[in-house]
Specification:
Layout lengths: L9 E7 L7 H11 L4 E7 L5 H10 L4 E4 L13 E2 L1 H6 L4 E5 L2 E5 L2 H9 L3 H4 L3 E5 L3 H14 L3 E6 L2 H15 L4 E5 L6 H5 L3 E4 L25 E4 L8 H8 L3 E3 L2 H16 L5 H13 L1
Parallel strand pairs: 1-2, 1-3, 4-6, 7-8, 7-10, 8-9, 10-11, 11-12
Antiparallel strand pairs: 3-5, 5-6
Helix pairs in contact: 1-10, 4-6, 4-10
Bound molecules: NADP nicotinamide-adenine-dinucleotide phosphate.
Length: 290
């Protein structure tokens, strides 16, 4: 590996816009070093209009795999040759393998969500859940909840109501789950819904770096001590939403564990090797604290 001068190096890319906030290049490059694998992971800031061109270039250059992030997780499906069962059910892709020019999409966010919430499985079964957002993260959450947690009801709450309604219809068609509701993100009207939810997930990008003073819910009455509040945003590690929920006694979780576990599954798909999760989490936490 030391003497290859990059002639055998495999290249994995991240496609998103914006991508400056992403920790994925750090995670994967450190993991390649830990495992002594001759791979490099590079971020590419690509806008939606350039997505197809970018993918054609990636295949032509012989790159080996990709991560996909905001805002391309749904749109990218139009350009793929094959989908895993999970990503086809979810309708969003965050990982792509490239073999002999053929692009196959996967959704490893499911693994990150399970790693964070599995410990509460018995508490969530048969309860009400609210999800804020209607993008890729929300899709992965809805799928994971219906398949593994069997809640009584899922409320999809989004800034653009029509996107929440689209997901309601989509998951009824895909998974025959009837107890989905949709609502516009207008917190004063949602107090009752949020307060009576055992689990609240923020799958919107509100609160994410650099606009860290924002929160999708600013009303403390939405939270209480018997709730689980999971914010997928991982930068900052504790968002304004989580601080507010924590002050009301809720059990709060940021997106860092999800990030590491979804990355571990992607790493396995590209390299066939296990990511050293413990060692990597320690390096990531040390880097963030700097
Ligand atoms: N921890 C992890 O491993 C992990 C994994 C996946 C995602 N995430 C995080 O989850 C968040 C969402 O990611 P995604 O992939 O689902 O993104 P996405 O597909 O682009 O969806 C973004 C969502 O955020 C909403 N939104 C954006 N700006 C808003 C604003 N100012 N006010 C209200 N709503 C707003 C959008 O609402 P509209 O429909 O109205 O535009 C949409 O529902 C990001 O912060 C991402 O970093 C973390």
């Amino acid at each position: 590996m030391k003497n290859s001068f990059y002639t055998n190096t495999k290249l994995i890319g991240l496609l998103g816009h914006p991508i400056k906030q992403s920790y994925s290049p750090f995670i994967h490059n450190i993991a390649f070093q830990f495992r002594e694998l001759d791979y490099i992971y590079l971020p590419f800031d690509v806008v939606t209009d350039d997505l197809e061109n970018a993918l054609n270039g990636i295949v032509a250059l012989g790159m080996n795999g990709l991560n996909v992030t905001i805002p391309h997780k749904v749109k990218i499906i139009d350009y793929l040759d094959d989908l895993s069962e999970e990503s086809s059910m979810i309708g969003a892709v965050n990982t792509i393998t490239i073999e002999q020019g053929s692009l196959k999409g996967y959704n490893t966010d499911v693994h990150g969500i399970l790693a964070t919430l599995n410990q509460f499985k018995n508490e969530i079964i048969g309860e009400k859940v609210s999800i804020i957002g209607a993008g890729g993260g929300a899709r992965a959450s809805i799928f994971t909840l219906i398949r593994y947690f069997k809640p009584k009801e899922i409320n999809i709450i989004n800034r653009t109501l029509q996107r929440a309604e689209t997901l309601q219809v989509y998951f009824y068609d895909k998974m025959r789950f009837e107890h989905l509701n949709s609502a516009e993100l207008f917190p004063p009207d949602l107090i009752e819904t949020l307060n009576s939810s055992k689990l609240i997930i923020n799958a919107s990008s509100v609160g994410m770096y650099p606009v860290t003073e924002d929160s999708p819910i600013n009303l403390e009455e939405a939270f209480h001590k018997d709730q689980i509040v999971f914010d997928m945003v991982y930068n900052p590690t504790e968002t304004k939403l989580l601080s507010l929920a924590r002050m009301q006694g809720a059990n709060v979780f940021g997106g860092l564990k999800m990030l590491v576990h979804q990355a571990a599954k992607s790493f396995e798909l590209w390299t066939g090797e296990e990511m050293p999760i413990e060692k990597l989490s320690q390096s990531l936490e040390a880097m963030i604290k700097k």
